[in-house]
Amino acid sequence: MKFVKITTVVTLSAIALMGAAQVTFAEDAPAKNPTSKGIVTLTTGDANAVTPPIDKDTPKEDITNQPGPLSIDVAPNFDFGTDKIGVGTTEYPIKNTNNPYVQVTDSRGTGAGWDLKAKITEFETADKSNKLTGATLTLASKELQTTNPQGVAFRAPVGYVDGVTLNDSPQSLLFAAEGNGLGTWANYFDKGTSKLTIPGGNFIGEYSATLEWSLTTTPKAE
Asked: In the record, which residues are listed under signal peptide (predicted)?
């Protein structure tokens, strides 16, 4: 009998201890999930790197091979074809077989912004015997393309859909305000509204002019 009583007491004590242990375990705070970090450091793009054209059909003569980190990658040539001379002022549209565009890359990574400008010389014959007096070239922006996966709505530069008439002083054609224009951007010109305007009274002949493109690191005021 005594053995049985002892056994009973020990058994009850064990149950009591198990209950106490279970209560203590239930009151412990749940373990926190571990954390870790991913770290990367970005620096300015390679000053010797050349950015290829966005458009695979870009004429070779339009490709500048200008190195970065802030560069004009494509500077378009414009062909106005052959047409009859007008009696009065006549507008001649762009007749390029491709869609002409200018491309800018900004891999500085600072968000400082930029301003793309162009100026033009007078149209004249190869022997410089004649000039197209009063002729003007107007370039109008049509659309933007970019390598940025977030698309053209994200920090895009701004072009001029109403057109800019060039002269011998640099005129802004595409600008990125501070915080915008990072990455590669192609600004396509509208072949329908971009035009060469020639007043009447000029001589027949083949004329050409030179466009000079430039990038300033200080963007124009919006």
From this structure: 1-26
The pLDDT mean for the chain works out to 87
The CA distances from residue 215 to 52, 161, 195, in Å, are: 18, 20, 23
Distance CA 79, CA 94 (A): 6
- Would you state the pLDDT for residue 152? 66
Length of the chain: 222
- Secondary structure in 3-state letters for the chain: CHHHHHHHHHHHHHHHHHHHHHHHHHCCCCCCCCCCCCCCCCCCCCCCCECCCCCCCCCHHHECCCECCEEEEECCCCCCCCCCCCCCCEEEECCCCCCCEEEEEECCCCCCCEEEEEEECCCECCCCCCECCCCEEEECEEEEEECCCCCCCCCCCEECCCCEECCCCCEEEEEECCCCCCEEEEEEECCCCCEEEECCCCCCCCCECCEEEEEECCCCCC
Name the architecture of domain 60-216: Sandwich (2.60)
Segments making up each domain of the chain, as ranges: 1-29, 60-216
pLDDT over threshold 80, residue 215: yes
How do residues 185-203 score in pLDDT, each as one tens digit?
A: 999 999 999 999 999 999 9
The mean pLDDT value for 136-141 works out to 98
Give dist(CA 167, CA 169) in Å, integer.
Answer: 5
Tokens linked to 150: 């977030």
